[in-house]
Amino acid sequence: MVTDGAAVPRTGGKASGLGRNYHYLLSAYSIQTLGEGVVIAALPLLASKLTSDPRLISWVPLATELPWLLLALVGGVIVDRYDRRLLMIGAQAAQTFLLVAVALVVTFGGTQIWMIYILAFGLCAGDIIFMGSSRALIPTIVRSADLETANGRNVTAETLGRMFLGPALGSALFVLLVPLPLWVNAATYLLSLLLIARIRSEAGHFRAIRTVAPDRRRTGTADGARAAERRGVLAEMMEGLRWLAGHRVLRVTVLLAATSNFSVFMAQSVTVLFAKDVLGVGDAGYGILVAAMAIGGVAGGLVSRRVVNRFGTRSVVIGVSVASALSLVAIGLFGRQPVVVVALFGVWSAGLSVWNVMAQSLSQRLIPNELMGRVGSATRMVAFGALPFGALAGGLVAAAYGLTAPWVIGGVVHLTVTLFTLPALLRWPSVIEAPPSADPEAAGVSGKAG
What we know:
By secondary structure, this protein is mainly α. The chain is built from 15 helices and no strands.
């Protein structure tokens, strides 16, 4: 069980309950993730109208996740330097503009597959700022005791929107009119932007607690100031990575998250072809299939807080990792009917929801507020940066060995890494506490050993 500590400063004066600001944030996130789910289903379908090459199809999810590898660190610096609410508004505005531009091209029949890649890349680049700012904002607007509740509601909203309701709606809209999912996604982002604008700051909640390095304050020339600023950005980017690498609990958690993401994206990168050629479903059926596969995630989100509190971090990490790996192997070996795939993938998606609540709450407690954006982005760079590699590997494996092979190979990879990290996991304490300082080596090693 995770207990509160002093590593994350808490702004005083929070009332009991989650509060008005959190509910605006949750509403915005719910609507935004619904729009993401719509376009997540639509983009592979749109690509499949232009090509049947598994490698080219896999480049859509590759482009969707590649910014996490390339831009996450600098995104973390931005999140820690500027007002997080304004960053979320700016990210949503840029994403809306990009969606409208591509939707106009699709509407008038000039679609090229490279446009899909650019749209996917741009939307993810905006998500780096939006997600980093949103998660860094949560521990400053809700009490520490409410973190599992707040994160559980966010994960449930994300699962419902991005994985359950959104894909079914996106495929239905695609069948009705090809560009319609893009227009609907743009509308959801605009509405999300308006809701975020209603969040009100109290006592500087929206900006990280920061100190200015003495050498940058004393710089005497404009060129020197710019050089110092560049050095400062690089130093801040590396600070987040070093802090994460030095934390004996979080670094193992992130390694397993990256492995899980790589493994599942091997299969998901060609799911649209797997659904059509192996399971025999059409365009509309693809969205329904993706939505049904997320049912486990919805259930997991509803019980995640109780599961984490009942079993603790260590048991959740081990149990979810093993069950998720085995579910992927089982789909590759036995998943020839939609109902079988839905049931087996439900194990994986339920584990994902429980994992996300555990990992987000743990990070928000252990990471100092002034490092929240940078360490959070370093975490996501490693964990989400594995996604494009998984997509690339999945396309190559499917082209060489068939559409079921990515499921089996991905599951074996996940299980192998889990077994490799098992000795380190068994040495974790049963109670993980934040240290009285920002020392990453001290964090997570106090409390009773299991």
